[in-house]
Every structure is written in C-alpha cells, then in structure tokens.
C-alpha cells in the first residue's frame, strides 16, 4: 500500500518548498498539483476561448494532455508534449489557474490523474483540495498557512532574488484575490480537512515545518 501525505493551503504558504523537502527526506515522489492547473490555464488562454464560459472550457478540456515526469526528483509538466515547467511559474499562469480551476470539468480531469499517481507510489502531494477531495483517505494531512503579509513578503523576496523586482502591495492584493477565489468557489473550495493538522508557518523556519511533518509521519506508523 502506498503512503500519502496531503498538504493543502493558500497561495504562498510555502507548500511546495516544504513538500519538496519532506518528499526528499522520505524518498517519496513530490507532486505539485498547482502546476497542472497552471498548465491547463495556459492552455485555455492559448486557445483564445472565453474564460468565463463553462461550456467552452468544458469542450476545450479534451484537447489538453497533461503529463507529469520526474527528472532527478524534480517534477516536469508537459502540455501536449511540450515541457511547460518554467512557463507555468508566472503570476499570469497563477491567476489563469485560479480562474479556470473553478470549473468542474477541469477539476475532474486533473483529480483523476492525481489519484492515479498517488495509487502507484508514495507521494507528498500539495494543492488546495488534496485532503478534502483528491485523497480523502490520506493517512497524513497538513493544512499549511501563513499570514497574508508573510506570504506576500516571501513572494516579494523570491522575485527580487530572481532579479525581477515587484510591487509588494500588488503582490499582497493578488494573493488576497487568489485566496478569495480559491476559498469561495463552488467545487472543492480551499478549506482545512477535518482530520488535517493545522500549521501556521508565519513564525517558523522551513526546517521547523519540515521537522514537524516528519515527526507526524513517524507518529502515524
Ligand atoms: O499552488 P499554485 O499557486 O501553483 O496553484 C495555482 C492555482 O491552481 C490555485 O490558485 C488554485 O486556484 C488552483 N489549484 C487548485 N487545486 C489544487 C492546486 C491548485 O484549484 N489542488
């Protein structure tokens, strides 16, 4: 039987950094589900269809093939055969994902793919609905969050380090908008699963959060 660690939480809470490190330490496969929604968002934008039309989005879904591969432990996302791992990291792709991930057809398609990946191997999977909808039976669930200010500041420093300075207030506004969209959509809104452990990383280092999750993993034996 494979073991699953589900990590959910809002944008910028540090889920991917933490999940990647936990996966590395346990030698599990890290699956970043947000990258899949981002790839779908880019696909819809590229098709030039009306992003407000559930019908058009539903029809277009069949034309997108998302494939996940792991190279040296790093996840690579392919959209119809093209490696879009870098392209999906932009703010624009994040907003597109947040908008189009609300559509049931998009979620159905990706949830199926995610469940299949978790069935065949030990995984650390992060997203918004992993503990509540994708892997409701996961033996360990974490809800990882941090204050909006902390999340915006982290993102700001990240962009600055990459040499692409941004506006802190703008980042904060984007994060708040994305939180609202993700928490208020009809299908699989972001919320803490009843049996998830709540972790606020605002005043914790990456190492502290990772250690806490590894401790919880040992306790779940
Ligand atoms: O985590 P990340 O910022 O890459 O996610 C981008 C967007 O994809 C989120 O804002 C959310 O709308 C959507 N998403 C989702 N369900 C997931 C993962 C991401 O709806 N499991």
UniProtKB/TrEMBL annotation:
The keyword Iron-sulfur does not apply. Residues 5-217 form the Cytidylate kinase domain. GO terms for cellular component: cytosol. It is found in: Cytoplasm. ATP binds at residues 9-17. The keyword Transport does not apply. It holds the Pfam family Cytidylate_kin. GO terms for biological process: nucleobase-containing small molecule interconversion; pyrimidine nucleotide metabolic process. SUPFAM superfamilies: P-loop containing nucleoside triphosphate hydrolases (SSF52540). GO terms for molecular function: ATP binding; dCMP kinase activity. Its EC number is 2.7.4.25. Keywords: ATP-binding, Cytoplasm, Kinase, Nucleotide-binding, Transferase. It catalyses: CMP + ATP = CDP + ADP; dCMP + ATP = dCDP + ADP. NCBIfam families: cmk (TIGR00017). PANTHER family: CYTIDYLATE KINASE (PTHR21299:SF2), CYTIDYLATE KINASE/PANTOATE-BETA-ALANINE LIGASE (PTHR21299). Belongs to the cytidylate kinase family. Type 1 subfamily. This is Cytidylate kinase. It comes from Wansuia hejianensis. The lineage of its organism: Bacteria, Bacillati, Bacillota, Clostridia, Lachnospirales.
């Amino acid at each position: 039987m494979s073991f699953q660690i589900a990590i959910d939480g809002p944008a910028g809470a540090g889920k991917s950094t933490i999940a990647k490190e936990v996966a590395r330490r346990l030698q599990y496969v890290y699956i970043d589900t947000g990258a899949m929604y981002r790839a779908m968002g880019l696909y819809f934008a590229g098709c030039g269809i009306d992003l407000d039309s559930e019908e058009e989005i539903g029809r277009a879904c069949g034309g997108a093939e998302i494939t996940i591969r792991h190279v040296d432990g790093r996840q690579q996302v392919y959209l119809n055969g093209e490696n879009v791992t870098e392209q999906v990291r932009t703010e624009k792709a994040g907003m597109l994902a947040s908008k189009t991930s609300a559509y049931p057809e998009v979620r159905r398609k990706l949830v199926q793919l995610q469940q299949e990946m978790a069935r065949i191997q030990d995984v650390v999977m992060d997203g918004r609905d992993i503990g509540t909808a994708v892997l409701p039976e996961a033996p360990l669930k974490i809800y990882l969050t941090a204050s909006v200010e902390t999340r915006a500041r982290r993102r700001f420093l990240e962009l600055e380090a990459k040499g692409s300075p941004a506006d802190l207030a703008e980042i904060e506004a984007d994060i708040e908008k994305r939180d609202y969209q993700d928490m208020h959509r009809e299908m699989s809104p972001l919320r803490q699963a009843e049996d998830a452990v709540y972790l606020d990383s605002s005043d914790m280092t990456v190492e502290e959060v990772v250690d806490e999750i590894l401790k919880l993993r040992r306790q779940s034996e």
